[in-house]
């Protein structure tokens, strides 16, 4: 222990680079005139010199505005794909996630990578999660967001070779963005992407039908007519579900009926998604309670500020906010142990799912945190922090990718066992927390620690602040 987080962060493999992005404008349907605007952005890359010579200012940032699922991410990828440049992406809700102080350093790392691998597109999903007008949010959550937002502003301003790195951000709420973000030279260009109309829906269905065995006489108009109000993501899903219908009946072609049935299911799903069932509230509660129960056992993660299952800006589920010692974090004084603890916390939802619902059940609820755990474990090994590869931070990675993955797998497995053990010892606490969360939706620090004192089997010390 005593090894430093810094080293893990300084690894060579860019963390935010999406490899193999091969999207073209032809993959995005129903754009109409918007396409012209996006083609211009591609030209900033391909004809950058020409723009500069003629004194045309290349925008630093482009804001794609519109509801979820209309293809904003897809479009950003298509810009990178058409221009043939690297694509870096991050979701702004990740900036404001769990640890105080992490947001700003993630922004810095993101832009450093993008610059080192220029030309590149930096894509920031759900910008409003971090870019809300300052001062609107009270309390330490607000301060954290301010630090992150300030860092983002610095990075947006920081380019001399404009046109080498272009930032594209998506938001559904351009109206609540901090005015500083939309000032000239920053996100000074807004493109609105509305929900598709009838013709747009037909085009989108057809794009997704390209790779599927469609019956000759499919009536796209019929499907488009009954999917009023749906976005590209939902239409793409209809094609997938229809294909599954076909497979189930061992047929070889997708018919209009398959599509209509799938559309009906999608419609029902759309309504269900508006209201959470009590079962879903409970699942989310188990998810968040598990993270809190495991975290409270670890010295660097136990300062839990609140636990919530209410969906917040950009987060499907709830979240657990841990206040971290930002001095410790910034100076790289986090121990190797606390990184392992972090991985363990991220695996808690998966472990809780196994304990409470029995293993083998697929759940999308813990998919994201399990993913965090896997990538953190990889970072851990790449940073030379694992016992086996101790100190080997600079070895040439691509030769040993399998070794690294299997070592990361082992770390994940042992952290998973640890998470399970802690949860098993704290079943009473878990039950109490889940009940309270379902009832109240959010627990304050005091309420949380009160329950920990009453029911926690390890009785960890409450935070000193
Ligand atoms: P957003 O970023 O606006 O939330 P996404 O780009 O993530 O939406 O869309 C999710 C998926 O839905 C895409 O990967 C694509 O398969 C499909 N999709 C959305 N809009 C379109 C579109 N205009 N044309 C084709 N596919 C689309």
Automatic annotation (TrEMBL):
GO BP terms, alphabetized: protein import into chloroplast stroma; proteolysis
An example molecular function term from Gene Ontology annotations: ATP-dependent peptidase activity
Source organism of the structure: Glycine soja (Wild soybean)
KW Coiled coil (keyword) present: no
Keyword tRNA-binding: no
AAA+ ATPase domain: residues covered: 58-197
One GO cellular component, as annotated: chloroplast
Protein keywords: Hydrolase, Metalloprotease, Protease, Transit peptide
Coiled coil: none
Name used for this protein in its record: Putative inactive ATP-dependent zinc metalloprotease FTSHI 2, chloroplastic isoform A
Residues of the full protein shown: 392 to 856 of 883
Taxonomy, superkingdom: Eukaryota
Membership in a protein family: In the N-terminal section; belongs to the AAA ATPase family. In the C-terminal section; belongs to the peptidase M41 family.
């Amino acid at each position: 222990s005593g090894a430093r987080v810094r080293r893990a962060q300084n690894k060579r493999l860019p963390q935010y680079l999406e490899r193999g992005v091969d999207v073209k404008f032809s993959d995005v349907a129903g754009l109409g005139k918007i396409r012209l605007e996006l083609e211009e952005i591609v030209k900033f890359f391909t004809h950058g010199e020409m723009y500069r010579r003629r004194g045309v200012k290349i925008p630093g940032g482009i804001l794609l505005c519109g509801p979820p699922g209309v293809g904003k991410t897809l479009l950003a990828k298509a810009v990178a794909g058409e221009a043939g440049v690297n694509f870096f992406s991050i979701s702004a809700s990740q900036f404001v996630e769990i640890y105080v102080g992490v947001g700003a350093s993630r922004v810095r790392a993101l832009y450093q990578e993008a610059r080192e691998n220029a030309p590149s597109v930096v894509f920031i999903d759900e910008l409003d999660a971090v870019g809300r007008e300052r001062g609107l949010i009270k309390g330490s959550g607000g301060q954290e967001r301010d630090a992150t937002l300030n860092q983002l502003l610095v990075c947006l301003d920081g380019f001399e070779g404009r046109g080498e790195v272009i930032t594209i951000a998506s938001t559904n709420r351009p109206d609540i963005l901090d005015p500083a973000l939309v000032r000239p030279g920053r996100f000074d260009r807004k493109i609105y992407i509305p929900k598709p109309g009838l013709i747009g829906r037909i085009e989108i269905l057809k794009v997704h039908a390209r790779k599927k065995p469609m019956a000759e006489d499919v009536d796209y108009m019929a499907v488009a007519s009954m999917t009023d109000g749906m976005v590209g993501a939902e239409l793409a899903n209809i094609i997938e579900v229809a294909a599954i219908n076909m497979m189930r009946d061992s047929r070889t072609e997708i018919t209009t009926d398959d599509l209509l049935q799938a559309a009906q299911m999608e419609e029902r799903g759309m309504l269900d998604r508006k209201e959470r069932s009590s079962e879903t509230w409970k699942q989310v509660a188990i998810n968040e309670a598990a993270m809190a129960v495991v975290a409270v056992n670890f010295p660097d993660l136990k300062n839990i500020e609140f636990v919530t299952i209410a969906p917040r800006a950009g987060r499907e589920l709830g979240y657990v906010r841990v206040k971290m010692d930002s001095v410790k974090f910034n100076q790289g004084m986090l121990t190797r142990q606390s990184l392992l603890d972090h991985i363990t916390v991220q695996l808690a939802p998966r472990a809780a799912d196994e304990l409470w619902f029995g293993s083998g059940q697929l759940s999308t609820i813990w998919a994201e945190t399990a993913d965090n755990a896997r990538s953190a474990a990889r970072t851990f090994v790449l940073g030379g922090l694992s016992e086996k590869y101790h100190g080997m931070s600079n070895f040439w990675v691509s030769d040993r990718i399998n070794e690294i993955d299997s070592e990361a797998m082992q770390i994940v497995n042992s952290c998973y066992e640890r998470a399970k053990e802690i949860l098993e010892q704290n079943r009473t606490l878990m039950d109490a927390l889940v009940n309270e969360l379902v009832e109240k939706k959010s627990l304050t620090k005091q309420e949380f620690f009160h329950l920990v004192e009453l029911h926690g089997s390890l009785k960890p010390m409450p935070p000193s602040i």
